[in-house]
Amino acid sequence: MTTQTKSNLSEYEYNIYNIQSRNFLESTGTDIEIEYHSHDYHFEGDKDKRDIYNVILKRGNREYAFKFGQSLADSGSGKKPSAYSILTCLVPHDPGTFDEFCWNYGYNDDSIKALNIYNKVVDEFKSLCTLYSDAELSMLGEIL
Predict the structure, then answer these.
(1) What is the rounded CA–CA span in Å between residue 60 and residue 63?
(2) Angle at 127 between CA 15 and CA 31, to 5 degrees
(3) Which among 2, 20, 41, 143 has the fewest CB atoms less than 10 Å away?
(4) Cα(130)–Cα(62) distance, rounded to whole angstroms?
(5) How high is the pLDDT of residue 4?
(6) Are 144 and 20 in contact (CB under 8 A)?
(7) What is the chain's pLDDT, residue by residue, as a tens digit (144 residues)?
(8) Measured between alpha carbons, how far is 129 from 64 in angstroms, rounded to an integer?
(9) With helix as H, strand as E and coil as C, how does the chain read?
């Protein structure tokens, strides 16, 4: 999933999206920690290095920690990614079976690379399920 950067959003859209993200975090009692990790290749097939951040979503005594690859446009700017950029990259719905995942996202169902991506998406979804209820996951999915 790709995210939009401030440079290709109107100021109004940018502010609305940030408000939606803050509202989600506040209404679910979620704290977010974003710390710079490195400038390196993040995604399989990256041709350019990008800023990589350690992100932790904390809710009570539960947390989900992961690495986030900043957009190439914003890498090197010294600015941390916004909560909006991070939250909209999460998968708040069940990806289904491997075949369904491939069909929905255009992957070849005879690909080890696609299977590895699918397994990471499933792990992410399961981690989010430990933090949020179905209704909260639905609310997360509504952040534009």
Answers:
(1) 8
(2) 40
(3) 2
(4) 8
(5) 46
(6) yes
(7) 444 444 556 776 668 888 999 999 999 999 999 999 999 999 988 999 999 999 999 999 999 999 999 999 999 999 999 999 999 999 999 999 999 999 999 999 999 999 999 999 999 999 999 999 999 999 999 997
(8) 10
(9) CCCCCHHHCCHHHHHHHHHHHHHHHHHHCCEEEEEEEEEECCCCCCCCCEEEEEEEEEECCEEEEEEEECCCCCCCCCCCCCHHHHHCCCCCCCCCCHHHHHHHHCCCCCCHHHHHHHHHHHHHHHHHHHHCCHHHHHHHHCCC
* Residue owning tokens 């209704």: 135
Domain residue ranges of the chain, discontinuous segments joined by +: 6-141
